[in-house]
């Protein structure tokens, strides 16, 4: 089972599970976001989700985090079963910044809606269920970080019956990530709900970034999704 917890310095979330959990989520995300050019207006958004998949893959390769979790076995249980087993299971994990994970769970709702239009029985789709389960784990973590009023507002942002992330300027998420990292621990905690609102409800800052990106894309005659801001994430984030 995937579980999510907020990090000590509130920079983001720690996502943990066993290898089967991560394999299931990795495969489900790849399937739900579709193949390249399947959803033309979602190419940049799809790439962003695949960036998260990259983190899951590296966790599976043993390049990220580990945590030992109680598995319910003790001396008495082993004696009853006449077998010797470890008392803890090893979970793998990875860290994701709050703006990034908020964007991922929001845009996944769009991909699920797009998928349902082509699926005769969407309620029985295993990969959709796996993605919903992951979204629920992040939302449950979110509930512990923001106020009840903010939590309800964010749920309304995530839950909708129409798609609206098509053509989204993904570079804006890098800017939000950078600004969020520049905050101190206390301000980050207070800003999670604000970040969610900025992702879900484009404001003047978003529109300015979008105009700049489109101008650069026109200048270099390339897709807007290929424009990159001159921003380097710190090598050692104090999570």
TrEMBL record:
<dbReference type="Pfam" id="PF21845">
    <property type="entry name" value="DUF6904"/>
</dbReference>
<protein>
    <submittedName>
        <fullName>Uncharacterized protein</fullName>
    </submittedName>
</protein>
<dbReference type="InterPro" id="IPR054199">
    <property type="entry name" value="DUF6904"/>
</dbReference>
